[in-house]
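Two proteins follow. First one:
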Amino acid sequence: MKLFQAPMANNQPPGFAAAVCEAGAIGTIAGAGMSADGLRAEIRAMPDLPFCVNLFAPPYLRDDALAVVLEERPAYFSFTFGLVDPAPLHDAGIEVLGTATTAAEADVLRETGVDYVIAQGAEAGGHRGSFLDGFPLVPLAELVPAISGVPVIAAGGIATRDDVRAALALGAVGVQVGTAFLFTHECSRPREHLEALRTHDTVVTDAYTGRPMRAARDDVLQDLMHETPLPFPQQRQVSRERGPLFMGGTGATRCREQSVAELVAELKA
């Protein structure tokens, strides 16, 4: 069973992916917001274990960042928001994961030749990876069985070993976990982030960044949801000026504060 840490741009500190790898899972460097030099430095600081680098798909993909991935050759590369040609990555010996929120998107990814599809259920925190029509919210229990012809990594609402078992029973070969890692000591999220996810329901809205993402529906986000957002990513600056906002998935209330090693052991048990 493959256990991936989800990319958590602007939420995971430097070295976090390395800590996940050392605990026995596959850490992911959230490279979309990094400079090419910063991404290279983070990659070179990783332990000699399999890890993943995540970038956004075009039109948000930066060629210099992708060039770093091709040069440094991590074991895995994942992408979201669209399509990235897997061929150059395969030539570099890198396995490729694309993100889908519907079976139709998974079909497109399969046809492009990805090695795995990350099935991002409606429960998942953070940005939605949708790239076809609209931003559908398909529950993970419906999405995973609907995908065929390609190995599936299930993502969304996975916080315990029982959640992992359920995802594997649906036909997934692995899971990608984000929100539960936010609660680990090594992630060092502010107390107000964790409490916001425990106190408020989460909602999918474009009011945070200009693209739909799931976050805690606190007073700041509630006010922003009454306004017309700027295009992604300009809306993020508006949100920062109004106050902190907190991404997270529907499984937050079941997450425990513990070490990365303890969480990985729980999920792999």
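Second one, unrelated to the first:
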Amino acid sequence: MLFSEKQERSRRFRLALRMGIPILMLIGVAIFYFFRQERFEINEIDIAIFVGILFISIYFLFFLINLGQSETYVDRMTGAFNREYLLDALKREMKKEKDYSIILLRLDNLPFISDHYGIDRGDRLLRIFVDILDKFLKLNDIKEPLIGRYHGGDFIVGLPLNVEESLKLMEDFTSTYKEINNLAVEFKYAAVPKETASDLNTLITYLYDTISQQKSGVSKKEKPEKKLDINLLEEEIVEAVRHGSLLLHYIPTLNAKKDRIDLFEVGVRLKTKSNGILPPKKFIPAVNRLGLEKEFDAALFEAICEDAAKVDPDIRFSFNISPFSLRNDSFVETIKSIASKAGVEYDRIIIELFENRAFRDVKRYKVILEELRELGIRFALDNFGAPNASFEYIKKLPVDMVQFDRDFTISYNNPKIAALLKGYIQACRSMGVKTLVKWVDTEEALERFRQLGIDYIQGFIVSNRPLDSEHLIKKYGVKQ
């Protein structure tokens, strides 16, 4: 039996006592009242008292039954703890002086299973999954594992272990159970020790941020930093964004037609005081969640323009801007102001578009992109061919370049992949759209993509390392 079900049984037993004892007391009072009289005769007053006692008893009984149903500890679908009880239990555990880890375990392909096999089968899978997880943890000496359903296929697990031990358990579980109830299952998971934040909601938010950066279908063992303070991390991210503490690195990209490097893809990291230099996977989720997308994108664009103004004017720069910013009318004015101040021509700017899902109001999005395009700015679809919204966008949005997903390079020997790439290149050429491939590491691959008609090539064969701002300006700077 699940620990949650044992707790629910105990709660119902206590509720039964609460229901039974007052009723027994009322019956006892009634019996005492009737038998203490000298003559056992029932009059109108006695009947009224009896009816009153009966009414109170029935009302009280139904009230507690209804209360018992509404205040259950258990998620009815899965048998795990429901969210309300889960959070209360975790808060109690966090107050204790012992190692304790909080884990977010996601059944990542649950939506696919529900869509293709039916919601009922997806629901049954959740129940079986919880039973299996509970038994697995008990076999690993976790006597009372705290398993709660947080949302959809997301479960929070509380374990009296340090975070390394908890992650090892999750790794063992996800590698052991690749199939449940004759269905292939995919997991994501992340864990943090209880002391990494002052409140539970912040901890859970951080877990969601961590999982959001993991690739679909991959169970990734995330080892958090020692003594990580999530509250301090967020404060430092905000401070870094607002003070423009950005470190840019430029990835050289070869123009295959001109046989020269005239395009750089820009990456960015944040410099913080206590948490060091943060890669995008560490700070982008917090930037998005805290509503700092526009501030961050403005700071990024300003930093790029400062460097662009100091190098060869024939060199262009491609970089990612948040869709949130690009759908904001005022951000167009921000772009104009920054570029004008730096003296950078718009045609040197390529904004990369990437999203996991198609945006509903494509028409409104298109209006803003067209306004930027009229200035001379160009747009590229990043990770084209990956499971994202790029196919929808190339049909409806003003796109000037596609940057193919890395799978087209590393899996090119697969005949299907090669055929798809050739077809895409031909389609892009017919639409006047430039093409770019990444992860090209050998002369053989370089020559192959040249022959296919790829416009831009990026990878180890072009340059073995990105350039920071200082080296970019030193190598490609405008001669005074």
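SUMMARY FIELD: Residues 217-221 have pLDDT under 50 and may be disordered. The radius of gyration is 31 Å.
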